[in-house]
Amino acid sequence: MKKTVDALGKVCPVPVIKAEQAAKELGGAGEVEVFVDNKTAVENLKKLAAQKGFEASSENMATGIYRVSLAVSEEAYQKLQQGEEEVAACEVAGAGEKKTVVVISSDRMGEGNDELGKVLIKGFIFAISEQEKLPDTMLFYNGGAKLTCNGSDSLEDIRSLEAAGVNVMTCGTCLNHYGLTEELAVGTVTNMYVIAETMTGADLIVKP
Amino acid sequence: MEEKLFCKTGGCGAKLGPKKLSKVLSLLDKKNDPNLLVGFDHSDDAAVYRVADDLAIVHTLDFFPPMVEDPYTFGQIAAANALSDIYAMGGDVTTALNIVCFPDEMDLNILGKIMMGGNDKVIEAGGVIAGGHSINDTDVKYGLSVTGRVHPDKLLRNNGAIPGDTLILTKPLGIGIVTSAKRVGQVSDEAFDMAVKSMTTLNKYASEIIRKYDVHACTDVTGFSLLGHLMEMVGGEVSANIISADVPRIRGAVRYAENFMITAAGQRNRNFVDDNVEFHGVPFGMEELLFDPQTSGGLLIALPREEAYSALEEIKKIGLPCGIVGSITERKEKAIDVF
Question: pTM of the entire structure?
Fold first, then answer.
C-alpha cells in the first residue's frame, strides 16, 4: 500500500507527525510519500525514519518541492502498532542470559568504621574479579565514583574486570560533583538514563 | 472578535540558522574601535561600547513572530527575551524602544495588549520605554531595542570559561518542543504553563545573583539551543562535558521530542554543531532537547566549582527548574561531549 502526504507549506512538526500517522494507517508494509517545501523538513523526516526503522530516500523535484519516500517494512509497521514500550518489554523477557549488575554506590563497604569500610570494598572488588561468572556491568555512583578514578586502590582490579569484558560505567553527575571529570582512569562515563535502564533490565543486582 | 494570535513558527525558532548567519557576517569588513568592547566577532549577546572609564553602554535588539496565542503574554515574552541580552552581559536596563510589525487590517486592541505586555516587563526590569517604530506587515512581529549600562570591568562575556569551571543553567529547556506540541494540540497544560512561566521570567534575577560570584563566562540560551550557545562559549580554546540527565527541563519535553514534536530550527542547530559534539549513549529525545531553540531561555554560566553550589542555591529561589549541567575541560578532540 502507498500513502501520499502533502505537507507543502506546513512547518515542522506537522510534516513529521502527518508522515508517522500515514505510516500507522498503511495496514502493513508499504510506502509513505511526503511532499515538503524545505530541506530541513526533509532532514526531520529522515530522523523519523532512522528512529522508526523506515528506509528513507529523497529527491528535489523542483524549486521548493521535495519528495521524501519512506519505505515501511512489515517489521517496522508492527513496531509502530505495538508501541515502543511493549517491544522493549518483549526484548528484555526474550533475552536468554541472566544479566548481573554490580552497583557500587560508596567508596566504603558497610557501616561502622570508615577505614575498615575502605579495606572491605577493595576486598570486595578483588573478590568479584575472581568469580567464575563475572558480572555483565559494574555501575559506580556517588562515593563509588571515586573508585574508578586516579588514586583509587581498586584501579588494577577494575581494569582487569574491564579487560575480561565487564562493562564498567561511572556516573557523570558524580564525577562532576567531586571534580573528578578529568581523573576517570577506567571504563566510561554514563548518565542516569543508562543507569536506570541497566538496573531495571538486570536479572540480579549485587550491591555491597 | 476573538483576540488570538496566529502562531506559525514563532519565537527564537524563527531565527536564521547560525550556519547561514556566520557565513554572511564573515564577509563584512570590521572597523577597529578600541572602545567597542564587545562586537559580533565572538557571537556574544549584545554590543558593548565604552563611553567612560567606569561606564559602557550595552546595545541589543530582538523581535520575532508569536509563539503563544495570547497577545499580552506574547508581549511579555518578546520583551523578556529582548531584555535578556542586557542581563547576559551583566548590565542593567535603562531604556527600550518598541519594534512593531502589524497588519493594517488587524484589530488594534491586539497590538495594544502586546505592547502592554512589553511595557510591563520593561517596567519590571527597571527601565522605561522611550519610543519605537512600526511597520505595516503581513504577519505580527514584536520586540524591543534595548539599551543598558555596565561597568566595563564587570562585563560578563560569553567566552573566558576555563577548565574546571562548572556550568549552571538557570531555566528549563524544552520551550521550542513544548510550543511545537502546543501547535498540534498535543501538550499538557502543566508543560505549557511551565513554558510560559519560564519565558516571561526576567533573567534580571539570575543576573543580579551571579554578579556576586566569580563568573568566567555567561550567555543566554536562545534560538541556537544549549549546545549551539555552548559551542560559542567554548570557542576553540576549551571543551565541555554535558551530563544530559542533569539538564533542567520542562516535564514531558523529552517525551514530546520522542514523539517528534520538533522544530526546523532544532534541526538547523544540529547541522550547525555538526561533528563538534559527540553523544555517548544519550536517547534521541534528549539529543533533541539539547538542540531545542529556546525563546527567552535561561543564562548559561561558567564559574569555579567551589562557588557553583551556593550560587545554585540562590538561583533556585527564583522558582524555575535550574541546575548544574556539566563542566569545562581542557580542549579535547570534540568541543562538547554529552553523556
Answer: 0.81
